[in-house]
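seq:
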Amino acid sequence: MRTGSMRVAEISLSAIRHNVARVRELTGGAVIVVVKADGYGHGASIAAEAALAGGAAMVATADLEEALALREAGIEAPILCWLHGVRVDFADAVAADIEIGVSHVQQLEALADAARRVGRTATAQLKIDTGLSRNGAAPDEWTALFARAAELSREGLVRVRGIFSHLANAGDENDRGQAARFDEAIAQLREAGIDPEMQHLAASAATLSSPHLHYNTVRVGMAVYGLSPFADKTSAQLGLVPAMTLRSEIVALRGVPAGTGVSYGFNHVCETATTLALVPMGYADGMPRALNGAGAWVTVAGEPRPIVGRIGMDQFIVDVGPLAGRVALGEPVVLFGDPELGHPPVEIWAGLMRTINYEIVAGIGSRVLRLASDGGAA
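struct:
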C-alpha cells in the first residue's frame, strides 16, 4: 500500500454489484452505467469492473479521453462517450471500438471520416435534445442528422446502435413532454431507415421513480454508487447501498484546557478542557472548507464527534472529548459512508453546503487512495 494511504476512499464492489442488480430488477432492460468524472469520484475502472460484474450491458463516460483510459485499464465491454470538442479526432475511438454519442451532423461526418481512415465501421448512438437545452441535436436538426446517418449506415461507415436524450428533472409534466418528443425522434429515425437497438432517456431519478420512462435501456450514474437522487428518500429506502466510505486516521492527539483556540482565526474556542485529534484530510482532498463551524461530524471509535475549527488544505481537527482514554494514534476516522453501518451519510455534507451528494463524491481529490474492497477484503 502506498504511503498516502492515510486518506482512503474505500469502494465496495459488492455494493456496486448490488445496485446494478437493483436497477435491473426495477427496469428489466439493459443498464448503461455512467463512470464519467473518475466514476463519480469512486475510481472509473473500479466502478466499471464492478458494474459489469453486476450485469451492466455497457459503461459510459462524457469525454473520449475517459473512454480510452478505460480501454487502457483493460475494460473490454462496450463503452459510450458523448461530449466532444470541435477539433476531436475519432480515429482512436474507432480503433478501440468505442461508441460515439453524436449530437450533430458535423460530429457524424467527423466520425465517418475516422472510420474511412481506420478502415472499420464506427458505432454511434444519436443524442438528441428533448428539452434540457444542452448538448444533443435540436428537433430542427433531426431530419438532416437521421438522413445522413442512414446514408452512412448503408455505406458501411457508421452503424447507429442507439438513440438517447437526457431529462431536465423539472417535474412529471415536463418529463412526459420530453418523452413525447423522444418518441417523435425514434419514429423519425425509423422512417429514415434505422431501427435503434438501444433507446435510453431515464437517468437515476427517472429510473427509480418513473417506469413509463424506462424504454428498453436506462443510463444510470448515482444510483449505481448507492446514493439517492431524491431529497426526501434515503438510499436504504430505494434499496441501494452507498459504495464509498471515506476514511482517514488520527495522527496527533493533545489535551487542551478550556479557552483554547482551535485552528486559523480561532473561530472555535473550547468551552471546557478536552482532547483534540488531528486528521490528515483537508479541502485539497475534497472536504469543503465551509464545513467549518457548520455542524459537521465524523465517527471515531464508532461514536459521532464534531469537526471543530477551520478546515485546512491538508487537515482538520475533531473534538474527541470523552473518547480521549479510548483512542490512540492511528484510530480510524470515518468522514462519511453507509448510514446503515453507523457512518455519517454524505448527505450531511451536501445539506450543509446546500448542494447535492453528486458534487461531494465527485469532488474527492486525487490524493485520496481509491481502494476496492469486497466482502470486507480490501
